[in-house]
Amino acid sequence: MEPQEDEQRATQAVTSIPTPTDNDLVLTQRIAAPADTIFDFLIDPDKMVRWMGVEARLDPNPGGEFWVDVNGTNVARGTYVEVDRPNRVVFTWGWEDTTDVPPGSSTVTITLTPDDDHTVVELRHAGLPGGPEDRHKDGWGHFFPRLATASAGGDSDTT
């Protein structure tokens, strides 16, 4: 890919990030790991499946594929919008074979903020049809603590 095309993709990606609203689902936790370590669990397929999913295909570049088989039945699919190591990852999100939240119809922003020898991780899911009380609250509530366990070096059951 030509350098100009890379810049163009990055610019397009930045302009498509939604503005945070009160209707977003927001989860925050403090994790006993550096931001750089946690960041790898958001972009590396082998590390992703240590906290969420049974299979992942990830191309962590603006416009790149985000595909996670969450449990052998439900597949989350979207594209990476922004990848800013080690501060923030943004990707679109939706479910294959569904019409209420189809692939790419919502946006997940994960922000990493260093806090002494820990990192504060904020997950913001925008564009959900049920707002902050959407059924995704239970899903992220199930997997988000597993990110803390896996990135801090523990073994996390992803099912």
Query: Largest beta sheet: what is the strand line-up?
Result: 1-7-6-5-4-3-2
Tell me, rounded to a whole number, the average pLDDT. 87
The CATH topology annotation reads as Alpha-D-Glucose-1,6-Bisphosphate, Chain A, domain 4
Largest sheet: 7 strands, antiparallel
Distance between the termini: 38 Å
Q: Note the overall shape.
A: globular
The number of domains: 1
Low-confidence stretches: 3-15
Counted by DSSP, the helix tally is: 4
What is the CATH homology-level superfamily? Answer: START domain
State the CATH class: Alpha Beta
Work out the helicity level.
25-40%
Rg over CA atoms:
15 Å
Strand content: 25-35%
Number of strands: 7
What order do the helices and strands follow? HEHHEEEEEEH
Describe the structure.
The protein has 159 residues and is of the alpha+beta class. The chain has one domain: START domain (Alpha-D-Glucose-1,6-Bisphosphate, Chain A, domain 4, 2-Layer Sandwich), CATH 3.30.530. It is 26% helix and 32% strand. It is globular, with a radius of gyration of 15 Å. The N terminus is likely disordered.
Salient structural properties:
single chain, alpha+beta, 32% strand, Alpha-D-Glucose-1,6-Bisphosphate, Chain A, domain 4, disordered N terminus, 159 residues
